[in-house]
Write a structure and sequence with these properties.
Largest sheet: 2 strands, antiparallel
Radius of gyration: 23 Å
Order of helices and strands: HHHHHEEEEHEHEHHH
Number of strands: 6
Distance between the termini: 28 Å
Structural class: mainly alpha
Oligomer: single chain
Length: 313
């Protein structure tokens, strides 16, 4: 009897993740349309909470408004049902035990990420633009980083072809500059990495960064200049929150190696040598969290695959 090869790609999980996204999108759009109707009734584009409450009370007896509320509530219930089922499937997934053992990482977030990536350790069959087919194979950690848009590129990259130099973790750039920057999408150009995967990973990182437990707190919560926590030995915070805070300390006085559009006013990028903005420092620290989380996920996926093959690392 021939057994199917071991895989961490679950079509049911992927489908449930897609369905959840569909319900979420419908719920958000429906809520926005209902809110727009309230604004029309309140006769203002920016109603105060009191005006919103008054408008909703005025429309409470309207059969049409009641129907809208029922429809939105129905979509919410479907979304909740899809979420519960997705989390159950994730708990039963081979990676479920790993997820349960990492503080701050939830089943819903990882499941939606896996719905995009598939198997973290296996690169699926790939058809190149010239029609050549590359068979499925083990995926390097750097390739998983690149698929999620966490690779770096030489300063001056501007075309999709430029982005292929390091996207597979092996190719060498033809640029003479040794200064590298994070990959970024450019208008009118097709990047060869997944924006959806990076969005899902960003959402997970946001959650783990919030996993901060006493006595590990900011030295002065009212001081906006202090944007990281001091951790005690053996703390119960998420390990990725610890990584985040260590990165915030590391980048506290970081300077730009190249011009930076995000840190300068419109049309005037921040110059090399200037300090990073607080938002840019946060972004760097969060990027570090994302890469470390992906590293651990890849290592666990590799362990499961090697175990299924009867091999050792």
């Amino acid at each position: 009897m021939t057994h199917a090869p071991f895989t961490l790609h679950d079509p049911v999980l992927q489908t449930l993740a897609d369905v959840l996204t569909d319900f979420e999108d419908v719920r958000i759009r429906s809520q926005n349309r209902t809110a727009a109707l309230v604004r029309v009734h309140a006769d203002t584009d920016e109603p105060t909470p009191a005006q919103v409450a008054h408008a909703e009370a005025d429309m409470a007896d309207s059969a049409d408004y009641k129907t809208l509320i029922v429809l939105v509530d129905g979509v919410k219930k479907l979304e909740n049902t899809a979420t519960a089922r997705l989390e159950k499937v994730m708990k039963e997934h081979p990676l479920g035990a790993w997820v349960a053992g990492v503080r701050g990482v939830g089943e819903k977030g990882i499941a939606r990420f896996l719905g995009v990536v598939g198997d973290p350790y296996i690169r699926p069959e790939l058809t190149r633009p010239d029609g050549t087919v590359e068979p499925s194979r083990d995926r390097k950690m750097s390739e998983l980083w690149a698929y999620c848009g966490l690779h770096t590129l030489p300063v001056g990259h501007s075309t999709p072809e430029d982005q292929r130099y390091v996207s597979d973790g092996e190719r060498v750039s033809s640029f003479s500059s040794e200064v590298r920057v994070a990959a970024a999408r450019r208008r009118g150009q097709h990047a060869n990495w997944s924006g959806e995967a990076r969005k899902r990973l960003w959402t997970i990182s946001e959650a783990v960064i919030k996993s901060l437990s006493a006595p590990c707190v900011k030295p002065d919560p009212d001081d906006e200049r202090v944007r990281w926590a001091t951790h005690v030995e053996g703390c119960t915070c998420s390990p990725y929150r610890v990584i985040y805070d260590a990165s915030r300390v590391r980048y506290a006085d970081a300077q730009h190696d190249a011009e930076c559009v995000r840190c300068g006013p419109s049309g005037k990028p921040a110059l090399p040598g200037s300090l990073l903005s607080n938002a840019h420092k946060k972004g760097r620290a969060q990027r570090k969290v994302m890469k470390e989380l992906l590293r651990d996920l890849w290592l666990e996926a590799r362990r499961l695959h090697l175990e299924a093959r009867g091999e050792t690392a």
